[in-house]
Amino acid sequence: MIILGIDPGFQFSGFSIIKKENGKIILIEYGFLKMNPAKHLSVRVGEFFNYFEQKITFFNVTDISIETPFLGKNAQNFLKLGYLRGILYLLVNKYNLKIHEFTPRQVKLSITGFGGAGKDQVARVVFQLFPAIKLPNKYDVTDAIAITLCGAWQQKLNTLDFSK
Amino acid sequence: MIILGIDPGFQFSGFSIIKKENGKIILIEYGFLKMNPAKHLSVRVGEFFNYFEQKITFFNVTDISIETPFLGKNAQNFLKLGYLRGILYLLVNKYNLKIHEFTPRQVKLSITGFGGAGKDQVARVVFQLFPAIKLPNKYDVTDAIAITLCGAWQQKLNTLDFSK
Questions:
Q1: Exposure string (b/e) for B16-46, b if CB count within 10 Å is 16 or more?
Q2: Complex ipTM value
Q3: For residue A71, which residues of chain B lie inside 8 Å, CB to CB?
């Protein structure tokens, strides 16, 4: 099981790739795709597709893990987030992957034990789990690692109590 | 200029293709893609991509015309509409097309002369413009034809007064 977790955005998309083997969790890649906001949306959609298609084929990804976004103040930005999710669904179809989706609350609960945790708390747990990570404290990347972990920990997740 | 206008949806996507040559408007194709709601979203995203990629290459499409959706009652459905729009943006990038986007009000105003027109009124004008159309009165297809026409009529549109 090789899971690609992504926190997509038109300017900055954090991601990580985790390999799950005999119950062991290995972080094999992490980073981010930065796109130039001056470029046309269609160009950025194309860049996003190419970048993650390459990651999927290079690392033989089997699963994609993403977070369910919630509608913020700007409905058109929310819609545009859908563009990048559509690209991920297309890649899922093209490479016959599985896709896992978690709410932000599920991700936080699964990582920190508390569904209302802040981004800094999530980041702290991620750095504790993977002390070798060399990263400026970029929440988008630590968030992406948390989302990827959720994909890897699914069985565990299902036994958690989401009622709290 | 060969314009593909689409009114996308996960169950039903109306579309039409219009050729503009020496100021003449020729409707060269119209119809719809129906997808099975029982299929996984990723499968439908893939179907949507393949179907319209084929239309683009077969008809040598140069432009895509779409309508700006507005947030309805269901934010998650609105987000999912973004998936299909993302696919269109990817095709725009892949085939170096131009993309034109109109608000529903702009489409109605441009077709009927009244920005608050109903779908039936838009359909009546479309049937008047193209009397040879053989269609059950499917609004999704007449809407798509109206959206395509907007792409073809752009210059005209720009001279209209949208303040009313």
A1: bbbbbeeeeeebebbebbebeeeeebbebbb
A2: 0.88
A3: 71, 75, 78-79
